[in-house]
Amino acid sequence: MTPTPSGNTTNNNSRRKGSNGNTPEQVYNSVRKPFNYAEGFHYLIQYVKQKMGRDDLMRISRALALIRPSFLALIMNLTEEDLVFMEKCFQRTLLEYEKLISFSGTPTVVWRRTGEVCLAGKEFSLLTQWTKDALLGKKTYIYELMDNQSAVEYWEQFSTLAFDNTDKACIHSCILRTPQQRPVPCTFCFTIKRDIFDLPSVIVGNFLPILS
Predict the structure, then answer these.
(1) Residue 60: HSE in the Cβ half-sphere, 13 Å Cα cutoff
(2) Which of the residues 81, 90, 141, 204 has an alpha carbon 20 to 30 A from that of 111?
(3) For residues 189 and 169, is the Cβ–Cβ distance under 8 A?
(4) Spans of the chain below 50 pLDDT
(5) What burial class does residue 8 get, using C-beta atoms within 10 Å of its C-beta: 0-12 exposed, 13-18 middle, 19+ buried?
(6) What are the distances in angstroms from CA 144 to CA 117, 141, 165?
(7) Which positions ≥6 away from 8 have C-beta within 8 Å?
(8) Which of 60, 57, 135 has its CA nearest to residue 101?
(9) Fold type of domain 12-209
(10) For residues 193 and 167, is the Cβ–Cβ distance under 8 A?
(11) Where does 129-195 have alpha helices with state H?
C-alpha cells in the first residue's frame, strides 16, 4: 500500500505498549525512521489467504484496490523527513489518546491504518478477555480479533471512508473473539483521524456488547 521505508521506529516497545508516561519530548526524540506500513498490509494479505476463503480474499483485495491510488498519490511526493514527521505526529497522538482512554468507560481500541493495535483500554480487556500485554506485547491486528465476516466488512467500510471528506463515524455490528474463540457480538463504531498529509492515520474503535 505504501513504499517501504528504510526502517521502523527505534522504540518498538513504546509503539506497541503506549507512551508509558512519556513526555511529548521523549516521544519526538524516540522516532528516528519512518514506520513501515507496507509490512502490515503484506501481513493482511497473508492472513486472509491462510484464514479465509477465496470470496473473502477477493472482497478485501477489492477494498484495498479502491484506496491504493489515493495512498500512492499522496505519498509519492513525500520525503524521508516527511515520513519521519508523520510517525512523530502519530506517536504524539497516541500520547493524547492514552489519556482519553483512561478516562473513558467505553471499550476502546486504537489502531493504525494497517489494523495494528496500538492502544487498548481496560474495558476492552474486560469485554473480550484479551489482556493489554497479549494485545500490545507483540504485533496484533484488529481484524485478528474479529470473525471473518466482521473483518471483511471492516475493510470494506474502511475503504469507503478512508478518503472521505468528513470525519463521520461508521457504526455497524461485528463479532469479536476471545482468546478461547468465544464469540462476543458487539455494536462497533470507528472513526478515522487523518494526519497533516491527509492520510488515514489513527483509527479509534469503540465496542459495546449486544445483550441477548
Answers:
(1) 25
(2) 81
(3) yes
(4) 1-20
(5) middle
(6) 10, 5, 28
(7) 33, 34, 35, 36
(8) 135
(9) Beta-Lactamase (3.30.450)
(10) yes
(11) 132-136, 148-161
